[in-house]
Amino acid sequence: MKKKTGKAKRGSNIDVIDSVVSVLQSASTVYVATHAAPDGDAIGSALGLAWILRSAGKQCTVACSDPAPPSLRFLPGSEAIESRRPEAEDVLVVVDAGDLSRLGDLYVAEAFKGRPLIDIDHHLSNTRFGTLNIIDPQAAAVGEMIYNLAAALNVTLNPVIATCLLTAIVTDTIGFRTSSTTAQTLRVAAALVDAGAPLYEIVQQSFDNRPLPVLRIWGKVLSSFQISDGIAWASVSQDMLKAEGVKEEEIKGLVSLMRGTQGVLVSALLMETPEGDVKVEFRSDGKVNVADIATVLGGGGHRAASGCTLPGPLVEAERRALDEVRRHL
């Protein structure tokens, strides 16, 4: 059974949302992009928005410089995500990216000029790069914001849209466990379940379906990570990943498990990329603002969850990251 979305929570974005609705309604073709090394909120929000726009009669392309992780390939449309840059689309939309550089290989300045660019994000560090920007740092996930946009567009929810958006919310809140989870988040989630989203399957696919090689990496890290002065940290080299045939984006979630160790205020997980750079993930209990830490290091994020990319080698990146964490304690 199809169900109308509830009344949109519009807040201070009301004028921008009206403009975004007008732009999208006047478009025939829309290009929706999200950040490199995508997570559940990125893929779920991009796909959810695409299905909403298709329901409204638009042609829509979803693009990402990296494919959807295996745990998200159950989402409808994930197999059709493209890695191409914008072409002749009428409107461009970027979801869940604090700045355009987060798009990786998709972003070339010239390709993003000459037409409306809509920026939909919940990161406090967002640079407002769009011609229209819907930014809500209070939203638990961009998927929650896309739900509100669907209401503004007067689009009817169906199981496909609901599944994508609930996956975005469930993954970004780690199963409704983050401090960003609000009563509104739960109301939106309930509406999505009512519309046909299979909560149990989403949780199973997102959290309880890790391949054995990934768990072996987790085991190595958990048996050797260090704790000092309220900081837990670990580094994962390319040699470790190659030995198990695992990519760095496949071990998401480990940094949160480290943060859950008794006495830990901030956790940091450093992962060496094939190019020699180092991706760093930070998590905190909310008392320490790790978005500030990541911003100093050239990244961004939220108060309790953030990240950045540092130049290698791994040892030097670890020193820089830990020095910055200590300055913020």
Number of helices: 11
Helix and strand sequence: EHEHEEEEHEHHHHEEHHEEHEEH
What's the CATH architecture of the largest domain? Alpha-Beta Complex
The CATH superfamily title of the largest domain: inorganic pyrophosphatase (n-terminal core)
Radius of gyration: 19 Å
CATH level-3 fold name of the largest domain:
inorganic pyrophosphatase (n-terminal core)
Summarize the main sheet. 6 strands, mixed
Our estimate of the beta-strand percent is 15-25%
By helix and strand content, what is the structural category? alpha/beta
How are the strands ordered across the major sheet? 8-9-10-11-13-12
| Portion of residues within helices | 25-40%
Write down how many β-strands occur, each being a DSSP E stretch of 2 or more residues. Answer: 13
Low-confidence stretches: 6-11
CA distance, first residue to last residue: 51 Å
Average pLDDT, all residues: 93
CATH class of the largest domain: Alpha Beta
Q: Write down the overall geometry.
A: globular
Describe the structure.
It is a single chain. The protein is 37% helix and 18% strand. The protein has 329 residues and is of the alpha/beta class. It has 2 domains: 3-207, Alpha-Beta Complex (inorganic pyrophosphatase (n-terminal core)); 212-328, Diaminopimelate Epimerase, Chain A, domain 1 (Roll), CATH 3.10.310.30. Residues 6-11 have low confidence and may be disordered. The termini are far apart.
